[in-house]
């Protein structure tokens, strides 16, 4: 009697991909950030959720705890350098380290080169770019000895221009190249830290809804027509990309950029 073929895998060999890892996610209280927190937790990570939005942040963490996840909320304004020391310290104290950092917090303030105010430009730069610099720097310091994965949420708007988003375009383009510079440095220094950027297209979140309300009425319809997959993306479709970059499955990827846009840039 021929013996039966070995099973493809045994149940006991199944592993969640981020078991034992600790993650910090900025802007985690809602939208793409909240989906990233849940997706990382589902793969076994302990999650430090940070945001300026206290109520939503605590509510998310409570919901994650009910579902059996170890997570905590830290109120953080990502633009403040001293806050980064506290966030990394809380990850270390509560969960023993920092393995994954997702710089997700961001804003989009529409305008054109003729109408965008300097105040809006500076605010956009502070949150979308300066804070990613501060976060990446803090993450590298915290991960230098043991390694880790830093994921910076840029946008397709960091790769192509839009007449309506000059400050956003500039900030997200900055995130794309800052990511590459930091990635090269860490690889050459022999740190086991990988740093990559994610570039979502149009994802149905409050940010997009708020921005669309300020843009010409037919903008949403015209945008939809340009997307080959003919729909806006879901937050979970960005989150699963982040899980991949956080996990060892992407172990040979650093300084790279993953586009999640339904084919728009293609
Ligand atoms: N929604 C999209 O279509 C889309 C597309 C490409 C890129 N992105 C990027 O994805 C990220 C998340 O966007 P979203 O659509 O979920 O937006 P969102 O507005 O729903 O969520 C952003 C979160 O960031 C937080 N935040 C803002 N300023 C902060 C600060 N100073 N400190 C800490 N937290 C702060 C907000 O409180 C909010 O919870 C952003 O970086 C955004 O630029 C979004």
Written overview of the protein:
The protein is α/β, with parallel strands linked by helices. The chain has one domain: NAD(P)-binding Rossmann-like Domain (Rossmann fold), CATH 3.40.50. 45% of the residues lie in helices and 14% in strands. The chain has eight helices and seven strands. The chain has a seven-stranded parallel β-sheet, sandwiched between helices. The chain starts with 21 loop residues before the first strand and ends in a 6-residue tail after the last strand. The model has no long low-confidence stretch (mean pLDDT 95). Nicotinamide-adenine-dinucleotide binds next to helix 1 and helix 6.
Largest sheet features:
7 strands, parallel
Which regions contain 5 or more consecutive residues with pLDDT less than 50? none
Q: Give me the Rg, rounded.
A: 19 Å
What fold name goes in the CATH topology slot?
A: Rossmann fold
In the CATH hierarchy, what is the architecture at level 2? 3-Layer(aba) Sandwich
- Strand line-up across the major sheet: 3-2-1-4-5-6-7
CATH fourth-tier homologous superfamily: NAD(P)-binding Rossmann-like Domain
Mean pLDDT: 95
DSSP helix fraction: 40-55%
| Overall geometric form | globular
- Record field, number of beta strands: 7
């Amino acid at each position: 009697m021929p013996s039966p073929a070995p099973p493809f895998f045994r149940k006991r060999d199944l592993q969640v991909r981020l078991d034992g890892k600790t993650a910090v996610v900025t802007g985690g209280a809602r939208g793409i950030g909240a989906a990233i927190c849940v997706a990382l937790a589902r793969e076994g990570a302990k999650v430090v959720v940070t945001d300026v939005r206290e109520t939503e942040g605590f509510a998310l963490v409570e919901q994650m705890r009910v579902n059996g996840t170890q997570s905590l909320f830290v109120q953080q304004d990502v633009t403040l350098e001293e806050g980064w020391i506290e966030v990394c310290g809380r990850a270390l104290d509560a969960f023993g380290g920092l393995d994954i950092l997702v710089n997700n917090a961001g804003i989009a303030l529409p305008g054109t080169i003729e109408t965008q105010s300097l105040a809006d430009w500076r605010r956009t730069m502070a949150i979308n770019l300066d804070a990613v610099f501060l976060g990446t720097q803090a993450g590298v310091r915290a991960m230098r000895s043991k390694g880790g994965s830093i994921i910076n949420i840029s946008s397709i708007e960091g790769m192509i221009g839009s007449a309506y988003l000059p400050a956003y375009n500039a900030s997200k383009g900055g995130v794309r190249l800052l990511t590459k510079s930091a990635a090269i440095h860490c690889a050459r220094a022999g740190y086991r830290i990988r740093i990559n950027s994610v570039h979502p297209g149009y994802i149905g979140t409050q940010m997009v809804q708020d921005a669309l309300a300020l843009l010409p009425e037919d903008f949403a319809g015209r945008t939809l027509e340009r997307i080959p997959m003919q729909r806006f993306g879901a937050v979970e479709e960005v989150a699963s990309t982040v899980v991949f970059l956080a996990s060892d499955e992407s172990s040979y990827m650093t300084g790279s950029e993953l586009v999640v846009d339904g084919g728009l840039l293609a």
